[in-house]
Design goal:
Elements: H1 2-17, E1 51-56, E2 62-66, H2 79-91, E3 100-102, H3 105-108, E4 122-124, H4 125-135, H5 138-149, H6 152-165, H7 188-201, H8 206-209, E5 213-220, E6 223-230, H9 235-238, E7 242-250, E8 254-263, E9 266-275, H10 278-295, E10 297-300, E11 310-313, E12 319-320, E13 322-324, E14 329-332, E15 342-346, E16 350-352, E17 360-368, E18 371-380, H11 389-401
Parallel strand pairs: 11-16
Antiparallel strand pairs: 1-2, 1-9, 3-4, 5-6, 7-8, 8-9, 10-14, 11-12, 13-18, 15-17, 17-18
Helix pairs in contact: 1-11, 2-5, 2-7, 4-5, 5-6
């Protein structure tokens, strides 16, 4: 009899303390940018091209901007987006580097820069990427577009969808290789966005863009022959830290380049559009890179503080684990003492079920000299369902029979 009285009282107590609403307690924190701009004085940089931009890749910080949203013809730097879609397909395992690609009549008919693929010729995906990255081959671009999407037109639709997802509002692609055609446009800013996506999401691209010279083998009905690829990006030889990315030139686009370079932990993207000749294109890119490496210092929190577990009210579990959303980086251009950066974890003492996996629980805030320079979200590592009457009853029975 005493057991049943105790059981009734315990259930009543648990029900009276159970949450009445289907809510989730979360830390109320303002949204902030991950990197403070601390924009430097760019007056010392002299760029001849009409449109240019310099971006640091890990934070996306803009270090220099000269009419970077001017809508211009991109020439072969279009191929940066083509390469993104190729690596997207590789990541999804829709294709592999060893897959064999058959060259169509349409692909073989491309003019401009090419590696003279013939109709019916077969090359691997790996070789096609080399031809695009090193020799800027239009024929290889179209062959890969058809291999991935079935047609160049369908592939170009994917290019525009991907561009929209990256926020490339100045861009409209009409082909996959960059040959001049009405309506095929972008901007230096948008080129920097897609360059950042390619090198940060798929850093293996540098295995291709740093090749200076390499031979491929044509196997056609006339037999086998060697064809030499030479990198169109002369900065690979001329600039000590260069590791990519893509050049472009046509009569209407003039001379363009998206130049990437890495020194220590800092990777920069310098985009030059519509330069009057190829020498100025590379000189301007080198000037921007030198300027960037001269002023930039990067802070990266590679040893974040361990996160506690949070107590859960009204859930089927009593606590929930946490994780950081990613890694925090801060780009300084003011010569600050980065050893003075502090961090503060902001979390509630407890949360109420239900909890959704991946939802924001709080954040870690970074400060320099008393000023907030950025933050990183802290997420729930798993979900926790709200406890039902049955769950409370089972817990109570377990408690009673363990006495």
């Amino acid at each position: 009899m005493h057991i049943f009285v105790s059981l009734f009282l315990t259930i009543s107590l648990l029900l009276s303390s159970a949450p009445l609403r289907n809510t989730t307690d979360q830390a109320e924190v303002p949204t902030v940018n991950e990197a403070d701009s601390n924009a430097p004085d760019t007056g010392a940089v002299n760029i001849s091209a009409p449109s240019a931009i310099l971006m640091e890749s890990s934070t996306g910080t803009i270090l220099y901007d000269k009419d970077a949203h001017a809508v211009l013809r991109p020439a072969s730097i279009t191929k940066i987006m083509t390469l993104i879609l190729i690596f997207d397909a590789l990541e999804k395992q829709a294709i592999s580097l060893e897959d064999e690609v058959s060259v169509s009549e349409h692909a073989a008919s491309m003019g401009g820069s090419q590696v003279y693929l013939e109709p019916g010729e077969i090359q691997t995906v790996d070789t096609m990427i080399k031809c695009i990255s090193v020799a800027s081959a239009n024929d290889a671009c179209v062959a890969m577009a058809e291999f991935i999407a079935g047609s160049e037109e369908a592939f170009v639709m994917q290019m525009n969808e991907r561009a929209a997802g990256l926020g490339m509002t100045d861009t409209n692609f009409v082909n996959c290789c960059g040959l001049d055609i009405d309506g095929h446009v972008t901007s230096a800013y948008d080129v920097a966005l897609m360059s950042r996506e390619l090198i940060t999401r798929y850093p293996q691209i540098h295995d291709y863009t740093t090749i200076w010279m390499e031979n491929i083998t044509h196997v056609t009905r006339r037999g086998s022959s060697e064809f030499g690829l030479t990198n169109t990006n002369k900065l690979i030889k001329q600039y000590p830290y260069a590791n990519g990315l893509k050049t472009g030139s046509t009569g209407l686009a003039k001379y363009c380049v998206s130049a990437t370079a890495k020194k220590d932990d800092i990777q920069l993207i310098a985009v030059i559009m519509a330069a009057p000749d190829y020498k100025i294109r590379f000189q301007d890119a080198s000037s921007l890179l030198n300027y960037g490496f001269g002023i930039c210092r990067l802070y990266q929190d590679n040893s974040p503080a361990p996160l506690p577990t949070l107590t859960v009210k009204g859930g089927i579990l009593d606590n929930v684990s946490l994780r950081y959303e990613g890694n925090f980086s801060y780009l300084d251009t003011a010569g600050s003492d980065l050893n003075a950066i502090t961090r503060e974890i902001q979390l509630p003492e407890e949360v109420s079920a239900p909890i959704e996996e991946g939802a924001e629980a709080g954040r870690v805030v970074y400060q320099l000299n008393g000023k907030e320079i950025g933050s990183l979200r802290i997420l729930y590592n798993s979900g926790v369902e709200k406890a039902s009457f049955k769950d409370y009853l089972m817990r109570t029975l377990e408690l009673c029979f363990s006495l």
